[in-house]
Amino acid sequence: MEVTAEIVKELREKTGAGIMDCKLALTESGGNIEKAIDLLRQKGLSAAVKKSTRVATEGIIGSYIHMGRIGVLVEVNCETDFVARTVDFQELVKDLSMHIAAANPIYLKGEDVPEEVIDREKDIYRAQARESGKPDSVIEKIVDGKLEKFFDETCLMEQIFVKDPEQKMKIEDLIKQNIAKLGENIVINRFVRLQLGEGSR
């Protein structure tokens, strides 16, 4: 299939990749846009891994208020003020703010979960497994599986992006995708989520 300017333009609009990258991906995929997107993502994500070690101190603090009842602040860093001002970066921060409001993560990533919290969760899962009559040989596997689910539910980077649940894309993957797209390291530094009435006595 011939790689026309129109199909290159379509691929660029869908991925934000450069013209030459789009042409190469389309040539490699025989003009199939979906396969070309996959190729670009593969190449981009491997490049994103390399960029993820670079220092990111620029960026913006995004905010989102939902009906006056839930408020979110999130600091997302990149490498330059130029990228921080782009529409794509600002859209990402907005999406992250809305995701945090909806999904209510407690921690940023698995490493941030205190050891005592992990130990307490494991004790609960072991007790539940024993209560349901599971043999000792499978209890630890059950505990590991439930702990993984706990991280998926409570850690922002492990959560499925609420705007795209069908794709099963984790926030970690969304960040990598944007590193590939914008060409700079991107880091969620911290966030806070407030809900009306929480902590009231």
Question: Can you give a write-up of this model?
Answer:
This protein has helices at residues 5-15, 19-28, 33-51, 81-84, 87-103, 115-131, 136-154, 171-182; strands at residues 58-66, 70-78, 187-195. It is an alpha+beta fold and 201 residues long. A three-stranded antiparallel sheet has the order 1-2-3. The model has no long low-confidence stretch (mean pLDDT 86).
Please state the CA-atom Rg, rounded to the nearest Å.
21 Å
Note the run of SSEs as H and E: HHHEEHHHHHE
Largest sheet: 3 strands, antiparallel
Spans where pLDDT lies below 50 across 5 or more residues: none
Q: State the secondary-structure class.
A: alpha+beta
Shape: globular
Strand order of the largest sheet: 1-2-3
Number of strands: 3
Give the termini distance in whole angstroms.
Answer: 68 Å
Classify the beta-strand content into a percent band: 5-15%
Number of helices: 8
The helix content is 40-55%
Look at the structure and give the mean pLDDT. Answer: 86
